[in-house]
Amino acid sequence: MESTEAEAILQSQAEIQQYVLAFVDTMAITCAVELRLADIIHSHSGPVTLSQIASCIEDSPSLNIFFLERIMRLLVRRRVFTAHHHSDAGETLYGPTHSSRWLLRNSKLSFAHLILMHKPIMSSWNYITQCVKEGGSGFKKANDCELWDYASQNVEFNTLFNKAMEDNSWIVSEAFISEYKDGFSNIGSLVDVGGGIGGMAAQIVKSYPHIKAVNYDLPHVIATAPPHNGVSHLGGDMFESIPKADAVFMKWLLHNWSDEDCIRILKNCRKAIPEKTGKLIIVDIVLQPNGSGRFDDIGLLLDLHMLVALGSRERTELEWKKLLEEGGFPTYKIIQIPALPSVIEAYPY
Fold first, then answer.
1. For labelling alongside 334, which of 13, 67, 197, 314 has CA 20 to 30 A away?
2. 208-231 burial, b for 16+ CB within 10 Å, e for fewer?
3. For the segment 252-279, what is each residue's pLDDT rounded down to a tens digit?
4. What are the catalytic residues?
5. Neighbours of 117 (CB within 10 A)
6. pTM flag (> 0.85)
7. CA end-to-end span of the chain
């Protein structure tokens, strides 16, 4: 019994230490993206030495190869890269993995820009205790303005944010469009609310060319949107009005806002669609606090990240149900897709 208790105490000690240092994983991944380590390793036809990696890192006249080796050691431990050690004391050879593909800077299916986008947000986490005590977002406490205002005033961050959201659309779009194919059959027109620079709307129209799509977002976002076949861009404020269409689409939008703000948005969605045939299509996380799926832990982590960054939240099914009812959508169904979010199809009837 004493041995079992001692082992439990030792294990719990290790777990807490792991949690305390979890930020190191985040920053090591960020470093890998900034140095383009995945791009360098994937650009070679076979495994590469540390010296080869170092020689390809730009703007590094005083690169410390010993520091680089220690970054690589952790990333190999985390299975981001592979390492093969020669028995004859030759140089270690590093190779790519499935995970490293998600760090490529020039790939549409990548988290690289999302990782870089979060760097300015990291200081917000210093204020999480104040958020709990006082409410409000950590980002505003750290920067004296909300994230959306910061993006509208900072061209570099706005561009990075929009690129990260576009990449996110590519990652989700394949799973969403393939699993939700029956949902588009009776839609002639669609408005993507908060659609960024239009990547998701473009993917929908490409797969379903009979749909006329409007990409609707804030004017400073639309100003950077490239042309897409079958998609028209429109700047505006979803809190004021939403363009009319057969269906309203919102991907990872409502988790940015409080319940009160979401209800305002939903009521405008309700006004924008036909009373008897219209529908609302939401692609967002449905939290499973006790779930054991591969994305359930990520949902809980992202919930706290939304708390800190925006003072907002992810939601359980019961919370979604209440929100939809108050916004004018008494009926809904949830469709699971092989991705972090789910599809919530809601109706005004």
1. 197
2. beebbbbbbbbeebbeebeebeeb
3. 999 999 999 999 999 999 999 999 999 9
4. 255
5. 20
6. yes
7. 61
